[in-house]
Every structure is written in C-alpha cells, then in structure tokens.
Specification:
The protein is 47% helix and 18% strand. It is α/β, with parallel strands linked by helices. Strand 6 and strand 7 (115-126) form a beta hairpin. The structure holds adenosine-5'-triphosphate (ATP) and magnesium ion. Adenosine-5'-triphosphate binds next to helix 7 and helix 16. Belongs to the AAA ATPase family. BCS1 subfamily.
Length: 485
C-alpha cells in the first residue's frame, strides 16, 4: 500500500496548489486562466493514474443484497485476509470453523498475473431515512483501485476471476440452510426479513432413501445432467431451472427425497408455505429473495391453495352469494390474491431474468387433483411417483436400519410385500428399536415384527375387500329387485 500512500500524498499536495490557484486565479487574464485550468486537469490525470471501482452491498429493487458484493467478500476473506491487520471473525458450523474477513476501513493488496491491485472496504452510516425507521442505515462497499494501464486486464479477466473464485469459496464454506417464509402479515418495512432460516443438516442421501434402484439412478442422472447444463440452458435460451413433481401416498418418502436431492446437489432449501402468502406481489418478493443453487419446495401443493378451484368458473348464484357475504369496503375482486396463474407466471418468467441454478419441487398426495396447467412438462419437467415399499426398497431399509443384506425371513417378506401395500415409513417404524432400553433389539425381532405388521395389513385388506363385496352384492340385489318390479 506504500505506493498508494505516496500517490495519495501527491494528490493532496496537488489539491493545495489548485486551491491556491483558485484564490489567485482572478488576477490572471482570462485566456491564461483557461489554459492553466485545462492543463491542471491533464496534469492531475497524469499524476494520479488510478481507476477506482466501487461495489455496494445493496442494490436495486427491494434492496437485494448484491451477489457481486458477497462474492468479493468471500474472495477477499480467502485470498487476501492474511495481509489485513483488522479482521472480522465469523464462527461457522457448530462454532468450530472460524472464517476471517476484512473489517471495514481496512485495505489489502492483491496480485493477479503479476499486476498489483488494491481493495479497501468502506462503510457509511446514514441517519434513519424516516422517523419510524428502526435504525440508522449502514451502507457498506468495497473499492478496487488499479493503474489505468491495467483497465483491460481488470475488466476482461480479473473481475471474472474474483467472481468465480469468490463464488467457489462461498460454496465450499457455506453451511447449507433451510429457509421458511415469514407470513406476509409480519413483514414491516422494505428491508424486513421475508425468509427465516435454520441450518440444514438433514442426513438423508440417495444411499439411504428406499426406492427402486432404476428410479434412483434415473433421478441422480437427471440431477447431474442439470448441474452440468449451464451452457446447454444458455444455448437453448431457457432459464437454468428444472421442475420436479413428487407424488404418492403419505409416508412414501417424498420429503426425504427432497432432502436427499438438496444434499446431493449441495443446495439450500426454500420451503415455501403458500397459505401464509397473501398476494401475488408478496410471492414475487419471496422468490426474488431466493439465491442461486437452491431448491424451492412447495409441499402438498393440492392443499396449499385452492389452486385448482380458482380456475373453476363460479356459477352466477355462487358469485352473488359470496358478494353478499363481503363486508363493506372489502375488496371485491380477488385479483390481488395468490393465484395459480400468478404462481405459474413466476415459475416461467422470473428466473429467465436471473442467472443461477434452481430446482422447483412440488409434492402432493393427490396428483389427480392438480390442474394440468401446473404440471405440464416444461413446468414440472419430471414427475416422480413415490409408491409403496417394494422388496428392493425394503432391502435398502434393512441395510440402513439393521445392517443386513440377507436373512432367512426375506423370502416371506418378499411374498407378503407383493400382496399388500405398506409404506416405507411403516417398514422403517418396524425396523427401529422400540425404546432406549430395548436390549433385545436385533434383526430377528425387527423382521418378525415387520412380518406381523404385513400379516395384519393383509387381513385388514381381505376383510375390507369382503365388506366391499358384500355391499356391492347388496346393491346388485337391490337393483335386481328394482328391475324385476
Ligand atoms: N423411501 C424412503 N426411504 C427411507 N425412509 C423413508 C422412505 N419413505 C419414508 N421413510 C421414512 O418415513 C418417514 C416419513 O417419510 P417422509 O416424510 O419422507 O414421507 P412423505 O412422503 O413426505 O409423507 P407426507 O406425504 O405425509 O409428507 C421419514 O422420516 C423416513 O425416515
Ligand atoms: Mg412430506
């Protein structure tokens, strides 16, 4: 930084000369004055041959945190922090790994392809913009200073290098997060938090999710292709996103699969609870605040909203009735509410404008209830059925829970599983120890209890079928009687 300081000194000396001249300038004839002024400017440019670039922390609409700022922060923390005297400490996962970053008003030197560049960090505090604002605003920024002869190098290569390296460091160090949205009603002010987060530490992986090996491979291949597809998506002019729809009965592992997907991809999860989002513009704001490399998850989409019902044309009578029920002053049209078309517009439109990889995952227990517009290919690119536990899936669970890959009871279990439906959740339940001091917990007991559960389910199914037949028989008879009359 010594060179910078020398230049700064020179700059201020020059400043004094210019100030003196401006005092005495009125005593010089006009043409001399103009000449001197022109040349001082040139001289100043010649003796202060540096260019500065400033990157602020917040920018644009909704004061979104600048990704460039975050990348520079990580880059400087990893590449240059050893040269800085004042550092800021952040404790990472489990308060074990400490990350150091540059404190405000600190300067560091970086070197790139043999060229020296200087970074400094700044902070200005503005008094609260309005009396009801909670606190004065702090505006942080980084300033990059370099010699003007290096402008091309900086613009064409160095900035890209900083961004790429910074993002890579962020991914390496980051603790993944599970975000949940705050209800719209709790937002106050334009900088309020719309998402809350906790650390995402779900242990699920594709090795532990019980599913057909073929299906597992298909999903993994699809995810890996997506991850490598940046250029492909850019070439075909599509936003880098992919939609998944996981459907199936409760307890078949939909939520577990989403966690495994997040772990496989190293993504954050944004668990979007649509019922607490009031309007389409609130939804838009929530989605804008999501970062790249994330899964946007909407669970139980059929229950989240009357998404299907909204499109159904209300009969005239129904409409009149609902108008009557409204209180005076209550909004007449529902156009401001979150709607299916609003949701579809965001899925299609929003991310085409912003770069970055995102998976959109919907889960449902009732695929048949969903509007076909919501799940057509292109929106939901991949439909994955999560079904009852097959024997192959059971083997995965037996391996995870009991650490066995074969047992004399396996054949019986295979036979029973072909006859009755049991969810992986129920299988897992049977394979777990029943209490902390369950000393007899061993493979044998667990498998026996599973067989028992399967037998009970089989009996239930049989008695249900018998009852069903009896009712059907009665109805048949009824019809017959009716017909004969
Ligand atoms: N395929 C599976 N592989 C491994 N474990 C499973 C699987 N399916 C269910 N489980 C176990 O059962 C529990 C419930 O599963 P999960 O929450 O993933 O089901 P779900 O399909 O999301 O159900 P819901 O429709 O009720 O939300 C999990 O804690 C998990 O341990
Ligand atoms: Mg679930």
């Amino acid at each position: 930084m010594a060179i910078m300081e020398t230049w700064a000194g020179l700059g201020s000396a020059l400043g004094s000369v210019i100030f003196l001249y401006s005092l005495l300038g009125k005593y010089f004839p006009y043409h001399i004055d103009a000449y001197v002024r022109r040349h001082t400017r040139r001289l100043f440019a010649a003796v202060y041959p540096y260019v500065q670039i400033t990157v602020s922390e917040y920018r644009g609409e909704w004061m979104k945190r600048s990704e460039a700022y975050a990348a520079i922060e990580s880059y400087l923390a990893s590449s240059c922090s050893q040269h800085a005297n004042k550092l800021k400490a952040d404790f990472g996962k489990d308060s074990t790994n400490l990350t150091l970053s540059m404190d405000v008003h600190e300067e560091v030197t970086d070197e790139f392809e043999g060229v020296k560049l200087w970074w400094s960090s700044h902070s200005t505090t503005r008094s609260a913009p309005s009396p009801w604002s909670p606190a004065p605003e702090e505006r942080r920024s980084y300033k990059l200073t370099f010699h003007k002869s290096q402008r091309d190098l900086v613009v064409s290569r160095y900035i890209d290098h900083v961004m790429a390296e910074g993002k890579a460091v962020t991914v390496r160090n980051r603790q993944r997060k599970l975000f949940t949205n705050n209800p719209s009603s709790k937002w106050d002010g334009y900088r309020s938090k719309v998402w809350n987060h906790v650390l995402f530490e779900h242990p699920a992986s594709f090795d532990t999710v019980a599913m057909e090996p073929g299906k597992r491979k298909e999903i993994l291949d699809d995810l890996d292709t997506f991850r490598r597809g940046k250029e492909y998506y850019a070439n075909v002019g599509k936003a880098w996103k992919r939609g998944y729809l996981l459907y199936g009965p409760p307890g078949t592992g939909k939520s577990t699969t989403v966690a495994a997907m997040a772990n496989h991809m190293d993504y954050d999860i944004y668990d979007l609870e649509l019922t607490t989002v009031k309007t389409n513009s609130d939804l838009r704001r929530l989605l804008i605040e999501t970062t790249s490399k994330s899964i946007i998850l909407i669970e139980d989409i059929d229950c989240s909203l009357e998404l299907t019902g909204k499109r159904r044309q209300k009969s005239k009578k129904e409409e009149e009735e609902s108008e009557e029920k409204k209180l005076p002053g209550e909004e007449k049209d529902e156009s401001s509410r979150v709607t299916l078309s609003g949701l579809l517009n965001f899925i299609d439109g929003l991310w085409s404008a912003s770069a970055g990889e995102r998976l959109v995952v919907f889960t449902t227990n009732h695929i048949e209830k969903l509007d076909p517009a919501l799940i057509r290919r292109g929106r939901m690119d991949k439909h994955i059925e999560m079904s009852y536990c097959s024997f192959e899936a059971f083997k995965v669970l037996a391996k995870n829970y009991l650490a066995i890959s074969s047992h004399r009871t396996f054949e019986t279990i295979r036979g029973l599983m072909e006859e009755v439906n049991i969810t992986p959740a129920d299988v897992a339940e049977n394979l777990m120890p029943k209490s902390v001091d369950d000393h007899d917990h061993d493979a044998e007991t667990c498998l026996e209890s599973l067989i028992q559960a399967l037998n009970v389910a089989k009996e239930e199914a049989a008695s249900k079928a018998a009852a069903g037949e009896a009712i059907a028989g009665k109805e048949d008879k009824g019809t017959n009687v009716g017909e004969s009359n």
